[in-house]
């Protein structure tokens, strides 16, 4: 983990745990999930090229992965005729989704063990700890790209645009919908969700 991740907005020892888990925890979960995505399945525990999954496991994975391909294929780059390429971005999308899911589980387990939540940041008292977790996650992806940069990204980059690195995983996480009371069937609380792990 590069030292740069141990600075805001990813981490600050004075931040509430919800904020640190939402940002840095999700990045760590993302990287760990790569060991179990379409590329990670090709390497064994020693890092050698060796497909260690059974045929049945691989088939089940592909079926679940197809949901992500279809989900991300539907995302349009604003003000263009371009869409995200769900196949090109599959490994990163699975890692984004797995990372936040595992980090949220770890955060909830931490709170369960210590028996209480942490202090609130100034100006954040109206948000629950769960909401702060998700806001911290989303803040990591704040930024601006030109239209040209967005087009280049969807044509060549294995990472989805920032908007969909936030909305994609959050729409697949029931805990997010519960935390923010999203209406069933809305963009961030859809009828169909994708999950591999």
From TrEMBL:
Pfam families: Peptidase_M13. GO terms for molecular function: metalloendopeptidase activity. Residues 1-196 form the Peptidase M13 C-terminal domain. InterPro entries: MetalloPept_cat_dom_sf, Peptidase_M13, Peptidase_M13_C. One of its GO terms (cellular component) is plasma membrane. PANTHER family: NEPRILYSIN-11, ZINC METALLOPROTEASE FAMILY M13 NEPRILYSIN-RELATED. This is BMA-NEP-11. It comes from Brugia malayi. The gene is bma-nep-11.2.
